[in-house]
Design goal:
- It is built from 5 helices and 4 strands.
- By secondary structure, it is of the alpha+beta class.
- It folds into 2 domains: 41 residues, Winged helix-like DNA-binding domain superfamily/Winged helix DNA-binding domain (Arc Repressor Mutant, subunit A); 74 residues, 2-Layer Sandwich (Alpha-Beta Plaits).
- It has a 4-stranded antiparallel β-sheet.
- One of its GO terms (molecular function) is sequence-specific DNA binding.
Length: 153
């Protein structure tokens, strides 16, 4: 299902990105509409797959996950069976917050959130015991300067 977004849809999406826990009344007031049309637009955008899962963003450091590593992976394996094992291993590891397959010299990049360097090492050891990896480079983030899930609508 394709949906054409107008300015009102974009305003609604911006409000949802800012705080999805807002009431329909609050969103309608912010976008200059009433509750029922806003609800209908959100429903249509959900049905079209534009609006997905709603969740809450937790403070990783407040919960003790103080280390964020970006893991660069090079592999010499490119067969479907290896890739399936690798993807299964990544999906099974809750420490992996993001995983991207890349073009260029690096095959994959992972964002891994753990309590400390020792916890990263445990993650690393578990990963390489599950799948053969040619080269791994782990980069520790010293400071998170910007992090957002908001799209520039």
């Amino acid at each position: 299902m394709t949906i054409r977004l107008d300015e009102m849809d974009r305003k609604i999406l911006a409000q949802l990105q800012r705080d999805a826990s807002q009431s329909l009344d609050d969103i309608a007031r912010e976008v200059g509409s009433s509750k029922t049309p806003v609800w209908n637009r959100i429903r249509k955008m959900r049905e079209a797959g534009i609006v997905g899962q709603q969740t809450v963003i937790l403070d990783a450091e407040a919960l003790g996950f103080e280390a964020c590593f970006f893991v660069l992976i090079r592999t010499s394996e490119h067969e479907a069976e290896w890739q399936n094992r690798f993807l299964h291993a990544l999906r099974a590891r809750p420490e992996v917050q993001e995983a991207h397959r890349l073009a260029g010299d690096i095959d994959y990049i992972l964002k891994v959130r753990v309590k400390n360097a020792r916890a990263y090492d445990a993650f690393y050891q578990a990963l390489i015991s599950e799948v053969k990896i040619h080269n791994v480079t782990a980069l520790l983030s010293m400071e998170e300067i910007k992090s957002t899930t908001m799209l520039p609508l």
